[in-house]
Write a structure and sequence with these properties.
CATH topology: Aminopeptidase
CATH architecture: 3-Layer(aba) Sandwich
Number of strands: 7
Strand order of the largest sheet: 1-2-3-4-5-7-6
CATH superfamily: Gcn5-related N-acetyltransferase (GNAT)
Structural class: alpha+beta
Shape: globular
C-alpha cells in the first residue's frame, strides 16, 4: 500500500466512520510494537463512529488528512482539539500505519494547534500512548509525568503526560 500525497481539512460528522477506521488501523498497525495484544484489543474496543459524533457534539473539533491508497480515497489520520480548562487544550493524533512518518500526523497536529491558539489556548496537553511519545517530542511537547489513562473500554493503558506551550501566530 502506497500513497503519494494527502490533503487535510476540518472534519465533519459525516467523517466519523472513516475517523474510526483510521483510529483502528493506527492502534492495530502501530500499537503492537509498544503494547501486548490484550492492551491493543482493549484500546480498540470502544472505537466506533459514535465516539467521534458524541465528541463533536460536545465541542471537540477534528481535522482529517485524506489521500488515496491503492486507488481508494481514505482518511489517513486525524487530530483533535478540545478545551480542558481555561487556556489549556487537549489533543490527540492518530495515523494509519501506512501514513506513519510521512508528515501526515505533524500536518494534522499543526491544524489542531492553530485551532487551539485561535480559541485562546496557551498550552496543549496530551496523554500520549507509548507509540506516540517520540512523535509528540519531535513536535515540541515535553514530558510532565507518567501514569495511566482510561480507555473507552473502561480499562487503563500506560501513557506519558505531555505538554506544549503554544505561541500565538
Amino acid at each position: 500500500m502506497q500513497f503519494a500525497k494527502f490533503e487535510s481539512r476540518r472534519a465533519y460528522p459525516s467523517d466519523a466512520e472513516d475517523i474510526a477506521g483510521a483510529h483502528l488501523d493506527s492502534i492495530h498497525s502501530i500499537g503492537p510494537r509498544f503494547y501486548p495484544p490484550n492492551i491493543v484489543n482493549d484500546w480498540s474496543a470502544g472505537v466506533a463512529r459514535d465516539l467521534y459524533l458524541n465528541a463533536m457534539e460536545g465541542g471537540e473539533v477534528f481535522f482529517v488528512a485524506t489521500g488515496e491508497i491503492d486507488g481508494k480515497r481514505l482518511v489517513l489520520g486525524f487530530a483533535s482539539d478540545y478545551r480542558i480548562e481555561g487556556a489549556t487544550h487537549g489533543t490527540s493524533v492518530y495515523v494509519r500505519g501506512v501514513a506513519a512518518r510521512r508528515g501526515v500526523g505533524s500536518a494534522l497536529l499543526k491544524l489542531a494547534e492553530a485551532h487551539a491558539v485561535a480559541n485562546g489556548a496557551t498550552s496543549i496537553q496530551v496523554e500520549a500512548s507509548l507509540a506516540g511519545v517520540e512523535f509528540y517530542k519531535a513536535n515540541g511537547f515535553v514530558e510532565i509525568g507518567r501514569g495511566e489513562t482510561q480507555l473507552t473500554s473502561g480499562r487503563s493503558i500506560g501513557c506519558v503526560f505531555m505538554r506544549k506551550i503554544l505561541v500565538p501566530v
